[in-house]
Amino acid sequence: MHLRAACALVVSATLLGACGGAASAPSRSGTIPASANASTTAGASTASQASAAPAPRPRTFALAVRAPASPGPSWSVVARVGEQPLAWLERRGGVTLIRFDQAHTRLILHAGTAEPEGSGWPHGSEIGPSEAHRVIAGFNGGFKLDYGSVGFVIGRRVAVPLSAGLGSIVTYTDGATQIGRWLAGVPQRGRAVASVLQNLALMIDHGAPAASVESCTTCWGATLGGGVAVARSALGIDANGDLVWAGGESISPSALTSAMTSARVQRAVELDINPEWVAGYLYEHRGGGPAAVPAISGQPGIPGQLLAPDSRDFFTVIAR
Fold first, then answer.
1. Beta partners for 265?
2. Which residue ranges of the chain lie beneath pLDDT 70?
3. pTM, full prediction
């Protein structure tokens, strides 16, 4: 049941424990009421002192990102700051997997030029200056926002209201990301939420694929031409709390989940499918700025490689 009226959003610094009368459901174009997010007013009494303090010097990163020439079925380091590894890549059965250490990286949800609607989102339709020297990877978001069984929120701004039970990628304002079922695992009580993307039910839960990945291909999205083995992607979280992105050009739902569970993924949400909308990139850092290297062999790719405005939402992973 989609509890859109009573508990469409529980996104606040002090998260509600149940769907009660204190929470009101936002409209598609509305915002979360200010009273529901205590973090927006925290520290207001010290604002004048903070404004008088000198601006902190920007942190310098010696970020190195390098895609392996011939990835295989074992993890290869693809990003590091100094001697600290941040990300690894491997390829299993036609599926590319990239694992990110959340202690040293952060996931960011971007809004496209057309999806979601409107301008002024915190992170817009391309990799901007604030990310250019920190970006490690970028990859597509979820289904089109009018597909159904989806949700999209950044801060207090709602593009599509959230629904109880859907698979949810939840990033908190402290930079950590969790993946789980909305209001049944995520969000964590007492943590302020920065963004949420929902897409269908969980594809993997408790380390096991959903039963329907074998029995119901259409449950995981309509494919171009009606085929089973098409371009697919997903984002999961493993037993250590690392994020794991997975994608491939010609794979079934079961092949995608098999690759992810072999990488110890505990929970996962399917992202977009079909070749025009599945793409992942690593960003090697050169004198002129980040240069995109395709993560999936043979992917058609996204025009502009997320370094130019794109119409659809997407994710980036940056070094902290």
1. 238
2. 1-61
3. 0.82
